[in-house]
Specification:
homodimer, 129 residues, 4-stranded mixed β-sheet
């Protein structure tokens, strides 16, 4: 019996994953993994997710270079949510060029952006010449 | 247009929610909210989730007393994940009687429990006499 069998995969064979920054404790992003992605993440210590929109493995940083080195993998009480602690290459986890994805804060019944761009997305995702 | 309309609710009208402890930054739990739960959470500053298993509002702490006072509500780049920062009453977020739900750590291809019980669940959830 593999540790992977202990996970309660959802009907699509996925598990939600929270990526938290090692050291700062900031929540960087939320994504999904299937069995192969989680096995690869554990084996390589590099975060690999499952892209639901593209329906394929998403090796975090494959285009941006903003890979995530995994320090720790945790499972919750119900065995249906994974929490990983990662070191974020480039200090940018979000595709918008920000440190993390949770840059909209509710203030006076409105979402206010309170995180600066670390880098412009156009400079992260360069078109192939 | 309400701030609630800006959220990309899933096909079941839900949004995944990560609850992080104010101060320590520990990820306490992961759950779901519907529109009513999130509106109540914002209005009352007490976390209210949607229980998918019971199909009803779940006022966190309604049985255990382990309520969560909300300091901050955040939304991610894709507007489909919510992150809340909370103060955890009793220091117990998990129904197992532990500080948080992520007490299983992957070590040598096995899940190891590395958090003690703060309180026995039998002492938290008392049967109604």
């Amino acid at each position: 019996m593999s540790w992977l069998d202990e996970i309660s995969w959802d009907k699509d064979g996925l598990v939600p994953v929270i990526a938290q920054e090692h050291g700062s404790g900031k929540v960087l992003m939320f994504a999904w993994m299937n069995r192969e992605a989680l096995a690869l993440t554990s084996d390589t210590k590099q975060a690999v997710y499952w892209s639901r929109s593209r329906q394929k493995l998403w090796r975090k940083g494959e285009e941006s270079g903003h890979t995530q080195t995994v320090h720790e993998i945790r499972l919750d009480c119900d065995e249906d949510v994974v929490l990983i602690s990662v070191e974020q290459t480039g200090g940018i986890a979000c595709h918008t060029g920000r440190h993390n994805c949770f840059f909209k804060k509710l203030e006076d019944d409105a979402w206010k952006v309170d995180q600066p761009l670390v880098k412009n997305p156009e400079d992260i995702y360069k078109p192939i010449a």
